[in-house]
Write a structure and sequence with these properties.
Strand content of chain B: over 45%
Helix content of chain A: under 10%
Shape of chain A: globular
Order of helices and strands of chain B: EEEEEEEEEEE
Helix content of chain B: under 10%
Number of helices of chain B: 0
Oligomer: heterodimer
Shape of chain B: globular
Number of strands of chain A: 11
Order of helices and strands of chain A: EEEEEEEEEEE
Structural class of chain B: mainly beta
Distance between the termini of chain B: 33 Å
Distance between the termini of chain A: 38 Å
């Protein structure tokens, strides 16, 4: 049962462009939505996260947009850089479940020169 | 380096053999997790420990899998009688319990142990 659906599977963006990755969830009990970034050969690392009481969170070039009624959230990477090339996972968690994250299937981002 | 450490990084084994992976979490973290990641997929939860107690196991964790965390420090994940379907990256993560109703969702992952079963 895939509780967090992520798209696209892969994405190619030119340097300086905007990268957009979308996720949708089913379980309305989820109340915390982190994004993880994973480079080849490395473990995932927390990038940015949002709670459903806000519609947007921005940290530097990274912004999460959250639509609670649609049960969707997205990651926007502004001014994308080659160093952003990695796999991005959205995730969701229900409070009280001891950080047992449910991950999306991942988006492989390639930022070209 | 005070991050999560996993060993070995790579393991190639023949079907039917037993393998063991070790995880050393960040020292002050009381929660430790094992996840499995297959190619093109996100990590899937296997099990987690609060100190030395194993509090939850996923249905993905068959009887051939066993995890321990003696003394609440490092953890081991053993797979007995390996099958080709066990080939995956096994990720360990740790976190700090901040309170009964607090979830930051921030897990600190190790670099993983990649298992290949021939």
């Amino acid at each position: 049962q895939q509780q967090v659906k992520q798209s696209p599977q892969s994405l190619i963006v030119q340097k300086g462009g905007i990268s957009i990755i979308n996720c949708a969830y089913e379980n309305t009990a989820f109340d915390y939505f982190p994004w993880y970034q994973q480079f080849p050969g490395k473990g995932p690392a927390l990038l940015i996260a949002i709670r459903p009481d806000v519609s947007e969170k921005k940290e530097g070039r990274f912004t999460i947009s959250f639509n609670k009624s649609a049960k969707q959230f997205s990651l926007h990477i502004m001014d994308s850089q080659p160093g952003d090339s990695a796999t991005y996972f959205c995730a969701a968690i229900r409070d009280g479940t001891a950080s047992k994250l449910t991950f999306g299937t991942g988006t492989r981002l390639q930022v070209t020169l | 380096d005070t991050g999560v450490s996993q060993n070995p990084r790579h393991k190639i084994t023949k079907r039917g053999q037993n393998v063991t992976f070790r995880c050393d979490p960040i020292s002050e973290h009381n929660r430790l997790y094992w996840y499995r990641q297959t190619l093109g997929q996100g990590p899937e939860f296997l099990t987690y420990f609060q100190n030395e107690a194993q509090l939850e196991k996923s249905r993905l964790l068959s009887d051939r899998f066993s995890a321990e965390r003696p003394k609440g420090s490092f953890s081991t994940l053993e797979i007995q009688r390996t099958e080709q379907g066990d080939s995956a990256m096994y990720l360990c993560a740790s976190s700090v319990r901040q309170g009964p109703f607090s979830n930051t969702g921030e897990l600190f992952f190790g670099e993983g142990s990649r298992l290949t079963v021939l």
